[in-house]
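Render this sequence as a predicted structure.
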Amino acid sequence: MTFLGLVGIYDPPRPESRPSVLECYRAGIQVTMLTGDHPETAAAIARQVAILPEEDSVELSDKGSVHHQAVTLGPLVMTAREFDRMSDEDIDALPELPHVIARCSPDTKVKMIQAMHRRNGIVAMTGDGVNDSPSLKFADVGIAMGMAGSDVAKQASEIILTDDNFATIVRAVREGRRVFSNIQRFCCVLVAGNVGELTCLLLGLAFSDSNGETVFPLSPVAILVNNLLTGTPPAMALGVEKAWPTIMDEPPRSTASGLFSWEVQADIVFYGLSIGALSIIDFWLVISGFGNGDMSEHCNMEYHEGCELVFRARGTTFATLTIAILLHAYNCRRLRGPMWNWSMLKRIHENLFLFGGFISGTILCILCLYVPGLNTR
């Protein structure tokens, strides 16, 4: 035999893998590599894609080799033999689960998923081989490779990744967060508007005419028109809101929070009560502040000359309620952080559907106030 040379085979990670992993860490998502490679090979690849920090902060427990600063972090790279040898109590005592497990077996992957579940984690597992099917089935979300994956892995998974690209998973997480945030915005503007309307109508029961009959701050037709202008257009526009650049900087939400978190509930109550109170205060100001307080008789049934003050107050209440809810729709674009500053006002035109709904709603509100016949309904 004549020695001719050595051939080295290198399978580099995709260029978009490192930015995607860094984006996961920004979003509070822990990325773990379970591989059948040698520990040194697995650690080298993990450093390239940012799964592991710099080399001087990693502990390699294989063969007892330990680097400088990793004693406080725990073993970030382990072999499957060492990980399987640990009891559940020993794994739970680790300050941090290993980021890389080399020479992995199917049982090791299932054991890692169980350890993440004990730490209240939601686990998404990717795999392509037949030996990955137990862990894909046991994970909360199994993701099989569509191009290189086996049929067994695909059948055991909930999602099939058609391009076998990890960056696609990160984009799917970003899109899922966008959809969930838009549903929260949708509910916030609708429910807060209804709370504001209900607050205005309930407080309006305190007003009565000379016969002791209640004078409604809004007529039934005005309530329906207000719902038409402030309900569907802003809510539907918020449903197609684009993802904010900081959406992946927020930590994962708690599974117990649900759609109506305490934050959303507080916004609904605060803004709803504020809009309703402001509307009924305007009604009172027109009647008693700028007027003589005379609400005449039977103004709920028909319009006559004595009801001019009541209908002027109703128009003011209708305009206040409509414009306030339309402005609140813009406020719901950011459930966290200020919306009414110069940097955000420059982005007011980004959602053209919301901008069009606000302009059209304002124009229709003006028409309802000043077109003869409409303003006495």
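Summary. The CA atoms of residues 91 and 115 lie 7 Å apart. The two ends are 103 Å apart (CA to CA).
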